[in-house]
Specification:
- By secondary structure, this protein is an alpha/beta fold.
- The chain is built from twelve helices and ten strands.
- 41% of the residues are buried.
């Protein structure tokens, strides 16, 4: 059982060029602040945004347990300088864009050679080519810093020419495969953004869908999305209560040496015990 030390229910993108947004993010109850040097920053503001991100992350003061820097593509005019800056920072992860294959992960891993061992590599899964190589990309975690997937649903939908319909039916197979590939290698996996930040009921429904699909959390574009996101990806009282009963059932003398026990008229296997222990561990850390 692999349980991340720090939950990642809510991962808020913050433009590194927006000083006001950075300051507001310091006080938000999100699990991850992702300072963005890529999509949210105009080309002419890239260098200034990098300097602002370095200053903000060096100053600290973020309440979020996870501090992440999203860099520009390694082949862009800014990518190499972004990676050099990221390697010198005391952060939790570097989020890299538009991964297409395992070779991309290897290049970013090499670009972070100077970073301290605890700096993880998170990959944006947002290209059609990556979809067919999800497990191969996840497998690079065995020899690199790769520790997480963040699904770029906007870029995927655009490249696939998918219409933005409620329920995300066209993307569901990809979302499911991404979760399976991530789980096979113990990676975090974070769902994509919901663009209409003014429609919180629709956001809550999509967050609930992401939780049901097995995601650890969801990436966000607005502070108003943080609270409903945390709620969607947190074990509720019923989840915790049942998990405790499963753990207690297997701790009893009648369960010794057994692969399954009876609980409330149903057979519960040891794989359910593993999940129950995970729920309790996450609930404890969130508390």
């Amino acid at each position: 059982m692999t349980i991340p030390e720090k939950p990642c229910r809510s991962a808020l993108f913050v433009p590194a060029s927006n000083a006001r947004a950075i300051e507001k993010a310091r006080g938000l109850p999100c699990d991850a602040v992702m300072l963005d040097l890529e999509d949210a920053v105009a080309p002419e503001a890239k260098n200034g945004a990098r300097a602002a991100a370095i200053a903000a992350l060096s100053a600290g003061g973020f309440g979020a347990p996870l501090r992440v820097l999203r860099v520009n593509a390694i082949d862009s005019d800014w990518g190499r300088a972004d990676l050099e800056a990221a390697a010198a920072l005391d952060i939790d992860a570097v989020l890299v864009p538009k991964i297409s294959d395992p070779a991309d992960i290897a290049r970013y891993h090499a670009g972070l050679a100077a970073a301290r061992p605890g700096v993880a590599l998170w990959a944006m899964i947002e290209t059609c080519r990556a979809v067919g190589m999800l497990q191969a990309i996840a497998d690079t975690a065995l020899a690199t810093r790769l520790a997480g997937f963040v699904i770029g649903t906007n870029d995927l939908a655009l490249e696939m020419r998918v219409r933005p319909l409620p329920g995300r039916a066209a993307l569901l197979p990809i979302l499911t495969l991404a979760v399976a590939a991530a789980r096979a290698r113990g990676l975090r996996v974070v769902d994509g953004v919901h663009n209409d930040f003014g429609d919180l009921p629709a956001f809550a429904a999509e967050a609930a869908q992401g939780a049901a699909l097995g995601f650890d959390g969801k990436s966000l574009i607005h502070p108003a999305q943080v609270a409903p996101c945390n709620a969607a990806f947190s074990p509720d009282a019923d989840d915790v209560r049942r998990a405790r009963r499963i753990v207690a059932a297997f701790a009893g003398p009648d369960a010794a040496g057994k692969g399954a026990v009876s609980l409330d008229g149903r057979m519960v296997e040891r794989l359910h015990l593993v999940e129950a222990e995970r729920v309790l561990a996450i609930a404890a850390r969130m508390a």
